[in-house]
Write a structure and sequence with these properties.
Helix content is 76%, strand content 0%. The protein is mostly helical and 184 residues long. It has one domain. The longest helix is centred in the first third of the chain and has 37 residues. It starts with a helix and ends with a helix. 23% of the residues are buried.
Length: 184
């Protein structure tokens, strides 16, 4: 298990580094584009193209991280239910849907890498298949991490966020279901 944790941490920080570099690249290229509009020099047309590619790379490199850290968008409506088995089933189902989506995106990214090598980007003349390599890695990471998360929830029980459990407790108190309120 320590080897798997070490590999997981290395992959986590590698994806975080890729996402951070992509975010900084977007920031730098957009600022450079804005600056070029007010300077009496000829602009660099490749800045817009790299900014767009960086946005795609940021999105897919961060997707796996968000699944692992539970930072992705999730509806926690069922998480406050008292029936923990229901919560477990819903969370496993949700992670399996994310995993299936990740598998579909991985297959499509692979197909794009295979077929788009002849097409070049308009300004940089970079093969478009290169653009899809980070997408493939990010989608595969998302699929793997969501599958692991589904297994973890199925084996160890549901993950209840502190916000969801606090909201459930407040809902119980406001509905008058608490034992202390009944005796007071």
């Amino acid at each position: 298990m320590p080897v798997l944790r070490r590999i997981s941490r290395i992959v986590f920080f590698a994806e975080l580094a890729i996402g951070s570099v992509a975010l900084l690249a977007i920031l730098a290229f957009v600022f450079l584009q804005a600056l070029q509009r007010y300077l009496p020099i000829e602009g660099f047309p490749w800045t817009g193209e790299l900014a767009r590619f960086s946005l795609v790379w940021l999105t897919f490199s961060a997707a796996g991280l968000l699944v692992t850290s539970r930072g992705h968008i999730a509806l926690e409506v069922v998480d406050v239910a008292r029936n923990k088995m229901l919560v477990r089933v819903v969370q496993v189902f949700a992670m399996l849907v994310v995993a299936a989506t990740g598998v579909g995106l991985t297959l499509e990214a692979w197909a794009l890498i295979e077929t788009q090598g002849i097409i070049k980007s308009p300004v940089l003349r970079m093969p478009m298949s290169w653009v899809y390599v980070p997408v493939l890695i990010g989608a595969a990471s998302t699929a793997i991490r969501a599958t692991i998360a589904a297994i973890d929830v199925a084996v160890n029980g549901p993950v209840i966020s502190t916000d969801a459990s606090a909201d459930g407790a407040e809902a119980d108190r406001s509905a008058g279901n608490g034992e202390q309120e009944a005796t007071a």
